[in-house]
Amino acid sequence: MTTTGTGPFDIPNIRWFIAFRIFFNSRFYYPVFTILFLDFGLTVAQFSVLNAVWAATIVLAEVPSGAFADVIGRKRLLNFAAGVMIFEIGIISFMPRIDPKVIFAVFLVNRMLSGLAEAAASGADEALAYDSLTRAGMADQWGLVLERLMRYQALGFVVAMTTGAAVYDPKLMGQAADFLGFGIVLTQDITMRFPLYLTFVLALLAFFSTLKMTEVEASPADKETGNLKQTLAMTFAAGAWIVQTPFVFAVMLFGMLFDGVIRMVITLSSQYYRMIEIPESIFGLMGSGVALLGMVIPKIARQIAENRSPVQALFVTALLAGAGLVSMNFFWPWIGLVPALLTFSAMYFTGFFVSFYVNREADSRQRATVLSFKGLSYNISYGVLGILYALVLKLAKAGLDPVADLSSETMENLVFVETFFWFPLFFIAGFMVLGAVCACFFNRFKRQERR
């Protein structure tokens, strides 16, 4: 691969990597995700099952797909991921409203394919981009690429959140149609597909982006004649390297803790907004506002990563997350937005720092596999925390006064407030335990090196 420019963004693979991430992740149906499924005729229980299937598919496919990318090539796997996205969005975009059992079956296929696409893209795109920088002698510019990527992704998310919610509204779309003189009647059955149609267009653009990428040729010393049988060996080799590399192992462990806790809180953010008396009519704007943090934080994170030690980066992120989680526990009306923003900002720092440090340490030949382990660990952490929190909620509900005449909504709100303290408690305890474990691990490793 040749380059004619002098900066990282003159490398075609870097530009197409950023484009792919934006098109692949900025999905217009996200702001109406739950109600979209319900409007197709699915139940809340079926929606929960479908999400569980999606998460399970990612967990099962995450690491094998990374190793597969290292064996057959990152570009090929990205082509596959984008192609699967086109199919999984297409089947629900153009599916007629028929028998509910058939609809559930189609959505089940959609969730499995969506998880497979997520797993296939995870690690492969980042590995291709980083290796493109390395071949051009600009590996030290990865922080700048991450900064630009996160800023553009934040902008894409804002557009998707606001547009997706707007086109879903039949009343708003009807007014727009009247203003433009179309003279058509738009119902919910029609407009509920608009976010899907727009996402289908993004899927086509994501596929076009992968087609424009070029595989990074390995140097003669790095080339390995391999086939698909190498996938399993690559997986075990990458896993062993992570465990035997104390710094990377520590980064991933802390990444699991930060990502799992904060992502769970983000999942519950609408309930939190309701409890601090934020009107539901501006929840979409809140999501866009949080996304705008991605326009500012990456630059700060890059300055820290490039000029400060990893320990300092860790404590900056931990301070933000800890202070935010503890303060959220007070549920201050409106003012509670401030600690929420602190917590959510820690998520951006976590994503930047983990990617920065892991890519810097990983070998090119197994980079996608290593990054897939990162994705796997994140999803396991998120899933385990979800199960634990569900158990906490169940115990809290069982402990409520059975005599009290509480409505279902009041009970849910009360339990949520009473159990939220488990998030800062789990985070602080987990941080202390990981700190002790990593300290012992580093000391043991140093003693082995002396021998």
List keywords for this structure.
20 helices, globular, 2 domains, Growth Hormone, Chain: A, 451 residues, 77% helix, mainly alpha
- What profile does the largest beta sheet have? none
Count of the domains: 2
Bin the helical content.
over 70%
In whole angstroms, the N-to-C terminal distance is 43 Å
| Principal-axis shape | globular
Describe what you observe in this structure.
By secondary structure, the chain is mainly alpha-helical. It has two domains: 1-217, MFS general substrate transporter like domains (Growth Hormone, Chain: A, Up-down Bundle), CATH 1.20.1250.20; 237-451, MFS general substrate transporter like domains (Growth Hormone, Chain: A, Up-down Bundle). 77% of the residues lie in helices and 0% in strands. It is built from 20 helices and no strands. α1 packs antiparallel against α6 (124-135), α4 (74-93) packs antiparallel against α5 (100-121) and α18 (367-398) packs across α19 (408-419). The longest helix has 32 residues, at 367-398.
